[in-house]
Amino acid sequence: MKCPNCKSAVLSATKLEAGLPAMGCPQCKGALVSLLYYRDWAERVSFPESETGEDIKLEEVSDNNAGQLCPKCGRIMSKYRISGSVTNKIDYCVACDEAWLDGGEWELLKALKLGDKIPTVLSDKWQRHVRHEASEQKWTDRLIKQVGQKSAAKAQEFREWVINHPNKSEILFYLSHEE
Ligand SMILES: [Zn+2]
Ligand SMILES: [Zn+2]
Fold first, then answer.
1. Can you give the residue ranges of every domain in the chain?
2. Between the N and C ends of the chain, which has fewer C-beta atoms within 10 Å?
């Protein structure tokens, strides 16, 4: 099997973790993971909390955004964004039940405490959550640009408080009222 990313490099049997086999690319460090094995592994594994907080620079993990072809069957793999805070996506082939992780994305998943949650990430529910998170992030970014980091943080804190307040509308009315 050839690497879907580098095209010419050949994938070889490796392990992402003890007991978790994968087909890895020696060149780009990407890996093809069979979810059949993965689900079984994820049920047995328990990541110690300390291990998940690894110091990795999220923005340095690059993601190949072009449509990737499944190295097994040649079909186009579907992309599933991992979270609202990173742009990385997991490529998944429904036909083969295999997921492709670009180099560094396994470490990224672990850092986001998603190391044992790939099937969850691929679910509709998670993808809706990610879209929501991403649009929230856009609003926050916009506010930061308009009023600066400090005021934006204050506004965010206030928003979270007011949004769940039983007298939310009274408070918002009071705020909008001008003399
Ligand atoms: Zn490669
Ligand atoms: Zn396939």
1. 12-122, 129-176
2. C
